[in-house]
Design a protein that fits this description.
By secondary structure, the protein is mainly α. The chain has two domains: 82 residues, RNA polymerase sigma factor, region 2, helix turn helix motif (Rna Polymerase Sigma Factor, Chain: A, Orthogonal Bundle); 66 residues, Arc Repressor Mutant, subunit A, CATH 1.10.10. It is 77% helix and 0% strand. The radius of gyration is 17 Å and the shape is globular.
Length: 161
Amino acid sequence: MHTKEDFIQHIKENEGIIYKVARLYTNSAEDLEDVYQEIVYQLWKSYPSFKANSKMSTWMYRVALNTAISHLKKEKKKGTRVSIDNFLSNKLDELDTVMEERITLLYAHIKKLSIVEKGIILLHLEGKNYDEIAAITGFTKTNIGTRLGRIKQKLKSQIKK
């Protein structure tokens, strides 16, 4: 039986998953908050149907990615917005450590990837193995390996420029 308390506990334990997915598919703090809330809402709506055929984190990744992708598609239909957050974050990055600058650079290049590529590289950066990524995305393990190799190569060439 899935109780409200169990759900809250799972959200607390896996909050990083939700935040990382939301951050990857948004460009402003407002959108990040909206997507985060939408992911939690979608998790709550589908929580009673979770059958534990996979790990809780795998299921949460799948719901989070699908929700974020849906949000991104809706946003693209609305048109392009320019966010002052990017300008402000660039100013703050100057004060950050070298590691923070590298992470910011990596996320900037990851945001340029396709929707599917973003999801795969995020899962890889989270330490998920090919089997787990395949279970979350629905691709085969071999396909994940191929795609991941191409994504890494693409990121390397983008960052070198």
